[in-house]
């Protein structure tokens, strides 16, 4: 994608996606907090209900002892076998009730003094005062209940291992987090795919519109170029005939200008023409020699060098010649007087590579794509169709073109295409 993530969220769809993601995160957070609160409330309700039952059982047993022995409740009642049996029954009841939470210990205090206990080694109430409270300490839960039976004060204390409750909460947190991240990932992925599809659609529409405009411009330019070429040809022939019998410098200058206009009209006609290649194997030596003559006829004093490492190449001779010529013309325009131009034709595996080096100024990175667009030129002369034509020709050969700026000096235009 060409856009950054931050730019995507500035669009209406991106903003809606961001709002949805934030709301969904808040929903997941609320769901976790609610589940935690629900577990805690459920456990607290179960503890309070259990303490109510223990208090009821203790009240029934106290009244039974008082009615049976006909005396008020005294600490010595704890030594009775009935009290030991009643305590074990109470422990069995608690163990059956708290299988998941895991019941650990129980203690009953009478008048703040130790009375009965199971698996509880202290002799005092674990807190300063006997007040109804439930305290959570790590994986331990401590519950204290104050009970008043027949105007006598009792205190019930029990401890539970709630690691199961903690583990359940952690599992739920992990599952919920995984589900939230998965959902957010899917939403974000779909958003990116939709955005990419929209971007491709916009690019395709823009490209189609540009091609339509370009085709219209090409047809119009070709029509004008045909008419202009006919007039220029006649003018060129007349000037050439008059110049051959005269040494007038002005006439020669006019002749050169007319010749230049003819070349430009030829470029426009090639721009409009559809490129249909007829590839074949041919010897590139004659083509390279013509490129050397083209450089010599330019009138610019440059050091021109050709390195050929192949005996034959595969491609359309006519169109490859046009591509090579335009690259050489481009180099001649870019290189200063006394500069260097080097042509290299080689083959790597099944790929032909043609490189044109010139010692002129490097191409700015932001211009490396623009210079291949039609009618774009950094020079005062020409229509900006030369490099565009090179790109069309090499793409018709299922190849590509690239520019490499050298650290020392100059640049390389490189075209490449594969042998079938």
Structure description:
This protein has about 425 residues and is α+β, with helices and mostly antiparallel strands. Helix content is about 55%, strand content about 20%. The chain contains eight helices and twelve strands. Strands 2-1-5-4-3 form a five-stranded antiparallel sheet, with helices on one face. It has a five-stranded mixed sheet with strand order 7-9-10-12-11, with helices on one face. Helix 2 runs antiparallel to helix 3, helix 2 runs antiparallel to helix 4 and helix 7 runs antiparallel to helix 8. The longest helix is centred in the middle third of the chain and has 82 residues. The chain is rod-shaped. The protein starts with a helix and ends with a strand.
Salient structural properties:
8 helices; single chain; 420 residues; alpha+beta
Task: List the topology elements.
Elements lengths: L4 H4 L3 H58 L11 H17 L5 E8 L2 E6 L14 E5 L2 E10 L2 E10 L1 H82 L4 H24 L7 E3 L2 H13 L5 E6 L4 E3 L1 H18 L5 E9 L2 E8 L27 H11 L3 E6 L5 E8 L2
Parallel strand pairs: 7-9
Antiparallel strand pairs: 1-2, 1-5, 3-4, 4-5, 6-8, 9-10, 10-12, 11-12
């Amino acid at each position: 994608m060409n856009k950054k993530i931050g730019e995507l969220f500035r669009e209406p769809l991106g903003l809606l996606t961001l709002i949805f993601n934030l709301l969904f995160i808040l929903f997941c957070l609320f769901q976790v907090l609610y589940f935690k609160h629900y577990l805690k409330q459920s456990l607290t309700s179960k503890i309070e209900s259990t303490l109510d039952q223990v208090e009821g059982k203790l009240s029934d047993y106290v009244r039974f002892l008082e009615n049976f022995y006909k005396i008020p409740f005294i600490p010595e009642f704890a030594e009775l076998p009935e009290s030991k049996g009643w305590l074990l029954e109470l422990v069995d009841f608690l163990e059956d009730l708290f299988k998941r939470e895991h019941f650990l210990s129980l203690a009953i205090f009478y008048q703040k003094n130790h009375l009965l206990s199971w698996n509880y080694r202290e002799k005092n109430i674990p807190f300063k005062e006997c007040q109804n409270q439930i305290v959570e300490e790590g994986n331990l839960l401590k519950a204290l209940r104050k009970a008043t039976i027949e105007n006598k004060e009792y205190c019930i204390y029990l401890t539970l291992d709630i690691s199961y409750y903690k583990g359940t909460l952690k599992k739920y947190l992990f599952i919920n987090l995984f589900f939230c991240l998965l959902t957010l990932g899917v939403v974000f992925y779909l958003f990116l795919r939709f955005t990419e599809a929209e971007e491709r659609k916009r690019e395709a529409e823009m490209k189609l519109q540009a091609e339509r405009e370009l085709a219209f411009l090409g047809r119009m330019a070709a029509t004008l170029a045909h008419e202009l070429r006919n007039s220029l040809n006649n003018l060129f022939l007349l000037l050439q005939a008059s110049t051959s019998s005269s040494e007038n410098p002005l006439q020669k200058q006019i002749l050169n200008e007319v010749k230049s206009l003819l070349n430009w009209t030829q470029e426009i006609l090639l721009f409009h023409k559809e490129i249909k290649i007829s590839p074949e194997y041919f010897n590139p030596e004659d083509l390279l020699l013509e490129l050397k003559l083209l450089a010599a006829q330019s009138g610019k004093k440059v050091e021109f060098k050709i390195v050929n490492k192949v005996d034959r190449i595969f491609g359309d001779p006519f169109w490859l010649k046009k591509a090579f010529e335009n690259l050489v013309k481009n180099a001649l325009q870019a290189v200063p007087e006394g500069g260097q131009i080097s042509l290299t034709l080689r083959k790597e595996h099944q790929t032909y590579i043609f490189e044109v080096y010139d010692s002129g100024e490097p191409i700015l990175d932001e211009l490396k794509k623009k210079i291949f667009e039609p009618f774009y030129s950094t020079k005062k002369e020409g229509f900006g169709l030369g490099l565009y034509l090179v790109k069309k020709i090499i793409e018709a050969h299922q190849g590509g073109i690239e520019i490499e700026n050298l650290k020392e000096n100059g640049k390389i235009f490189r075209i490449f295409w594969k042998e079938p």
